[in-house]
Write a structure and sequence with these properties.
This protein is an alpha/beta fold. It contains eight helices and eight strands.
């Protein structure tokens, strides 16, 4: 199961490079109508969402010195949910007070996200676009939420370079993905897709999973530092997720500018 290592030297900026993988986009667009079905193709993300939101709340409030117990602790922050899909993370962040931009390369995903937000009475700026296009337009964000995306892009270096360019001074980025280990192959491919059928077969390509060391190197090349990393651990008996030390399958991290003390 050899995989091609990430080349962290790739970076966005000349307008000719793209991190978009058309086959990956088509695969997720085909499932777009199922984003908000908690028992459908995105059931694992619905189960994982409370842990992801909790991690974001803890890390973002600590980074900006805001009150995590306030009703809207993200008030005043402009947050980009890159690869937002149907809006599973964008909506809770909007409820926490953030000005949210949700971006996705799949047009069908954006249509679903806009419709669901409208029904929920949430004002979220959803855009059918890419990180590279946003960076080229000069957009800036206090926080970038980059969850379960980098294992689906064509070029991790280009993608993270664009994300780094989108961060405002003092900003931060939260990233979650899958580690490229034998354990993740068994759990995320054989288990989740073939045995348990939590996800359609072919949802993930193990060779595109990213080791924490590779992520740290690519972030460093983009001028960012991985200041925190935690495992996302699944309990099959209670069918629950939690943060832990085991990064062998899923993990989440928090990246800041290289000179930041946070």
């Amino acid at each position: 199961m050899a995989a091609t290592p990430i080349d962290p030297s790739h970076s966005a900026g000349n307008g000719s490079e793209s991190s978009v993988d058309d086959e990956e986009i088509a695969r997720f667009e085909a499932m777009a109508d199922k984003w908000w079905d908690p028992e459908g193709d995105f059931k694992p993300l619905h189960r994982l969402n409370p842990v992801r939101v909790g991690y974001l709340r803890d890390k973002v409030t600590a980074h900006f010195g805001s009150d995590e117990n306030a009703p809207t602790p993200f008030a005043g922050l402009r947050i980009l949910d890159i690869g937002c899909g149907g809006g599973l993370l964008a909506e809770p962040m909007a409820r926490l007070g953030a000005q949210v931009v949700g971006a996705d390369a799949g047009e069908a995903n954006i249509r679903v996200a806009r419709l669901h937000a409208a029904r929920a009475g949430l004002d979220i700026d959803y855009r059918h676009t890419t990180a590279e296009a946003l960076a080229e337009a000069g957009e800036k964000f206090d926080v970038i939420v980059n969850m379960e995306v980098i294992e689906h892009v064509a070029d991790v270096g280009v993608f993270l370079g664009a994300c780094a360019a989108l961060l405002a001074s003092g900003g931060a980025m939260a990233i979650s993905t899958l580690n490229r280990t034998p354990k993740s192959y068994v759990a995320a491919i054989i288990g989740a897709e073939y045995l348990l059928r939590w996800l359609p077969r072919g949802t993930h390509n193990w060779r595109k999973f990213v080791k924490p060391s590779e992520l740290a190197d690519a972030l460093a090349h983009a001028g960012l530092r991985l200041s925190d990393i935690r495992g996302l651990e699944y309990n099959p008996f209670g069918q629950t997720w939690s943060l832990g030390r085991d990064t062998g399958v899923n993990y989440v991290g928090f990246a800041v500018h290289a000179g930041s003390e946070n």
